[in-house]
Amino acid sequence: MTEKPRLSKLKLLIVSLLTFTLLLANTASVFASDPVSDTEHEAEPFNPSETIVHHVLDDHIWHFFDGHYGTLYLPVIVYSSEKGFDVFSSKNFYDDHHNMVEYKGYSLEHGLHLVGDGHGEHGEAGFLLDLSITKNVATLLLNALILFLVFRAVARGYKKNHGKAPKGIQAVFEPIVIYLRDDVIKPNIGKDYEKYLPYLLTLFFFILFGNIIGLLPGAANMTGNIAVTLVMALFTFIITNVKGNKGYWGHIFLAPGVPVALKPLIILVEIIGIFTKPISLTVRLFVAITAGHIVMLSLISLAFIFGSVAVGAASSLIVLFINLIEILVAGIQAYVFTMFSALYIGLATADHDEHH
Amino acid sequence: MELLTPGSGLIIWQAIIFLALILLLRKYAWGPIISSLKEREVGIEESLAAAEQAKNEMASLKSDNEKLLKEARLERDAMLKEALTTANKIKEDAKEETTKITSKMIEDAKATIENEKRAALADVKTQVAMLSLEITEKLVRKQLGSEKEQKALVDEYVKDLNLN
Fold first, then answer.
1. Residue A51's closest CA among A348, A302, A329?
2. DSSP 8-state code for residue A21
3. How many CB atoms lie within 10 A of CB A214?
4. Helix (H) or strand (E) holding B139
């Protein structure tokens, strides 16, 4: 009995140390990966907004740190109406001095596009689909792999500890799963909640893990990408409208209890409401995560703007603090997205009597 | 502005990966996890219900026992009381019987004594009478040896007769 608290204290210490190192490393990594420290760019004045946006956006290469091995060149998969399918490494777009070059008629400057089609404006000269394994796609795959391994291990725990108390990783995630099931999903959806559990649990942990991965040094701003959040919101949108029952549609198109004169207006508002729900989901997560990244990067940029070590030290401390808040935000946003998804599904599938 | 325009490639990748992840996790993770949790919860609920039932059974058993004990006690008391009454009655009856017998015996004895007494008295009377007669005879024979004396006697009788 006396051993356990000591052990958990030790664990806590290790975890906090790791967290601290991680946060410091993150800061350091941003410093290191900053293009301004590239020798070629040294002479140019530092442009914080460009740097920040570059960090927050998707990329065809995965830049961890400067140097020969610091960059992972991801595969480019592209389809264009002119050239058809093509797969090649994004290394082809860079020469030995890390300058951008054209390859096979494609250019990577400001997004993948065909040379001579009006600079990055897709589809003007012809249809082009960029299916490259970008930094975000790679992170997506990584996130999915981690999720799969973690929760398969959790599921195995149930088989192994059958009839016993949960242990290890199983004990870590069980309270979260139970909390989500009993306090988020069940109250919002009602008696049919079990059908939606796989989707909503996947959603929650995908966002949570994605948010936390996004905070790691050198990682992509995956859950802060509008495409990623849009797809998740669309999943909820599709489920909501496919599973929507008579009561849901009746509420939209018949507007019960509203004076006849006002009905057209209310129906219009309700129809707009169908679409504002996924849009709000998309934008909320995207903004919350991207804003966090931008704030941290801005604070770090202060060091370069002022060119002062003292400012760098001070802003690093603040960034450390913001990083901790971001961990909190990672959980909150995952919770909020899941909660609203459950709420929307619940509203669409609720019994008519309950609805009013 | 690039920040706000979702990349079509990323949308496709995310849709594929996310859908695949949902399906995979549903099969390999959420299914077993949710069913195990449910199984455990049902198990706990059943155990609690069983415990509650056992408790109730115990309580009812205890109350049954108490009832039985109470009944037994009452029965014992009743039996004791009855036994006591019976004993008392027997005692009472015995006493009465004894009294009756004693008094009868006494009466019998008294009657016997009376009879014996009477018989003895009669006997004594007879004896006395006989003796008297004998004595009288002897006296008479001796005294009435002469005429004078006879006459005196007759006179005395007469005198007695007159007096009466």
1. A302
2. H
3. 24
4. helix B31-143
CB < 8 Å to B7, chain A: 58, 111, 130, 134, 225, 227
- CB-based contact A74:A140 (threshold 8 Å): no
- For the entire predicted model, the pTM comes to 0.72
Q: Give yes or no for B48 touching A (CB within 8 A).
A: no
**Chain A environment of B3 (Cβ under 8 Å):** 53, 56-57, 226, 290
Structure tokens given for A125:
């000269």
Q: Nearest 5°: CA angle at B74, between B68 and B79?
A: 125
CA distance A154 to A157: 5
B14–A206 C-beta distance less than 8 A = no
**Structure-block tokens of residue A61:** 């290469």
Contact B33 A158 (CB under 8 A): yes
Backbone angles phi, psi at A61, to 5 degrees: -120, 155
Question: For residues B22 and A67, which has the higher predicted lDDT (pLDDT)?
Answer: B22
Q: What value, to the nearest 5°, has the Cα angle with vertex A239 and ends A237 and A245?
A: 105
Q: Please, what is the average pLDDT of chain A?
A: 81
Which segments within chain A are labelled E, that is strand?
61-63, 71-73, 75-80, 84-89, 106-107, 113-114, 128-130
Q: Which residue from B17, B25, B40 is facing A140, i.e. has the nearest CB? A: B17
- Taking Cα atoms as reference points, which of A61, A78, A79, A58 lies closest to residue A70? A61
A141 pLDDT more than 50: yes
Contact criterion met (CB < 8 Å) for A290 and B3: yes
ipTM of the complex: 0.79
Give me the pLDDT at residue A304, please: 85
**Chain B residue nearest residue A286, CA to CA:** B4
| Contact between A231 and B18 (Cβ < 8 Å) | yes
Residue A107's closest CA among A74, A137, A130?
A130
Residue A64, exposed/middle/buried by CB under 10 A (0-12, 13-18, 19+)?
Answer: middle
Q: pLDDT tens for residues A221-244?
A: 888 889 999 999 999 999 999 988
Contact criterion met (CB below 8 Å) for A150 and B21: no
Residue pointed to by tokens 């990244």: A293
**Short-list B30, B44, B26, CA closest to A165:** B44
Q: Residue A255: left if φ>0, alpha if ψ -120 to 50, beta else—which one?
A: left
Please tell me if residue B11 touches chain A, with a CB cutoff of 8 Å.
yes
Average pLDDT, stretch A328-336?
94
CB A120 within 8 A of CB A109: yes
Which residue in chain B is spatially nearest to A193 when comparing CA positions?
A: B34
Write out chain A residues lying below 8 Å of B9, CB-based: 77, 129-132, 134, 137
